[in-house]
Design goal:
An eight-stranded mixed beta sheet has the order 3-4-2-5-1-6-7-8, with helices on both faces. The protein has eleven helices and eight strands. Helix 1 crosses helix 10. It is α/β, with parallel strands linked by helices. The protein has a single domain, classed as P-loop containing nucleotide triphosphate hydrolases (Rossmann fold), CATH 3.40.50.300. Helix 7 links the parallel strand 7 and strand 8. The chain starts with a strand and ends with a helix.
């Protein structure tokens, strides 16, 4: 039975979907069967990160309507990673999480890893994803409001005996309000990835190609890969050198 990992953030725009996509592609390239699920039922955008249209693709919303089985809604990307995308129609926003547990339970037996790209906040759909996951990955930015919001997830997980794998801090610069250690102190959880602010990450989103594929030697790509290795418990890591930091600043 595969491991289910929820990727969550109370604040929007922290880079959850970017983290999910790069993790999924990394684990797939390691030879694992990976499924990334767009569990953001009200604001699905996983498809946009990969340049895919859901007009002719069966989505998780079709599954929740009872129109098809979960396995029918799985799309295999040319890279090898599997995706369960979300719909973008206006009437999709009326669907809730009632059957999300069934979706998760039905697909986890088919994959080594199931990564849930949750919506922002701690709505009932997010709590449903968390409660049916083996572990949680918190994504935040190095700003006090974002990290304080992230603490709400820590509190929820502690109250429900949910395992937090760690924290990913996205959009880190030398002028960031909070340091790596500040975030760990506030959240009392390990930071397993400090992803630098990187113009190439923005370019990769524009080109609909994850940075781990567009520029795998980039510091940001190496950091995302190391996050995936941690979630996968692979016992390996990509070394990040002084030159990686320099190239990230000027590349």
């Amino acid at each position: 039975m595969g491991k289910v990992c929820s990727v969550v953030s109370v604040k929007g725009g922290t880079g959850k979907t970017t983290t999910c996509v790069n993790m999924g592609f990394t684990l797939a390239r390691e030879g694992f069967r990976v499924l990334v699920v767009d569990a953001n039922l009200e604001g699905s955008n996983l498809s946009f990160h990969l340049g895919l249209s859901t007009h002719n693709i069966v989505t998780i919303h079709d599954v929740l309507r009872g129109n098809c089985s979960p396995l029918d809604a799985i799309y295999t990307h040319p890279s090898g990673v599997n995706l369960m995308l979300g719909g973008v129609r206006l009437d999709d926003v009326d669907l809730r999480e009632a059957d999300l547990k069934k979706v998760i339970q039905s697909v986890r037996t088919e994959f080594d890893f199931v990564i849930l790209d949750c919506c922002s906040g701690l709505s009932s759909s997010v709590r449903s994803a968390l409660n049916n996951s083996d572990e949680v990955l918190i994504v935040t930015n190095p700003e006090l409001p974002a990290v304080v919001d992230a603490f709400k997830i820590v509190q929820y997980c502690e109250g429900n005996n949910l395992f937090i794998r760690g924290v990913v801090v996205n959009k880190v610069t030398k002028h960031s309000d909070l340091s790596h250690y500040d975030v760990e102190t506030i959240l009392s959880r390990p930071v397993i990835g400090n992803v630098p602010e990187d113009n190439l990450v923005k370019r990769s989103m524009k080109e609909r190609t994850p940075i781990v594929m567009l520029k795998p030697s980039r510091k940001s790509a190496k950091t995302f890969k190391n996050v995936a290795f941690s979630v996968g418990e692979l016992g390996k890591s990509e070394p990040i050198t002084f030159w990686d930091k320099i190239f990230n600043m000027f590349g």
